[in-house]
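Final report, closing paragraph on structural work. Over the funding period we assembled a curated collection of sequence-structure pairs, and we close with a single example.
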Amino acid sequence: MMEQQDKGNKDWAQSEKFFSRSWTHIFYFWKLRQIMLGKTVHDILAKSDQNQVKRVVDLGCGPGTNLFDVYDASEHFENVQWFGLDLNQREAADGASRSAYRVKERGKKPVHFMSGDIFKLPFADNSIDILISSEVVEHLPDPVPALAEMQRVLKPNGYAMVTTPNPRNLPEMVGYALDKITFGGFKKLYWKGQDEVSAPPLTAQVGFGHVSVHPFPVWRDWFKQVGLPVVKHVRGPMLFGSPFFDRHRFLSGMIIMLDPIMDKLPFRFSTTTNLGMLCQKKER
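Its predicted structure, as stored:
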């Protein structure tokens, strides 16, 4: 029994060490948090009336990892209230503890955390200025009611910034083609070593499976249906990461270096691993 426990602890330690040193994972999360979410929220706040109180809410915030980065990118704005909401009470409590530490030790303004259901948001109609929902909606068997809730709580002209996996990204589609040609050999090469460095797989049965991965036209139509039309695309990184790219650091380094150029190409949104959709509630 003790040996099994030690082996489990070792596996988790390897997982944490791998993800902390993985170039592609570090770049993925940097671009997701600093550019897709952080810069987008910053630009919205910069164009808003600085004298009015603004409320920013992260739906499915976990322990606040994304939210704190977004806050840090816009902390110089006055009259902004920050909130994180997650169904998992323990995660929300962790976020509250982190916020208390940041307030005490770093002089930051508080970020308020709460437990709540994305299908029944604990906010009044027309009360929120900016919503963030990053890599959450793909876990919902039927996302439309959640999108409708976003629309309900947003103020007229308020924004929702949503990110979710992009199943039609060109690199992944090329990978599928290569895997088919090689009769599964490419997939084995690409993910070689992943079992030794990853956490146990999460399944739909416990609420974490990717059960709603759809291409952009599907999400566009759903957002339009609930009254939150997409007004801007925000491109994410081309790579999410795997042991393959971390074994070939020159290749991953070149791709990362070229990423700013990819942001300017006409077909740039076919090269992003996740969809960034900025939606706006229109005044009736």
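The CA atoms of residues 41 and 61 lie 15 Å apart. Residues 1-18, 195-207 have pLDDT under 50 and may be disordered. We thank the funder for supporting this effort.
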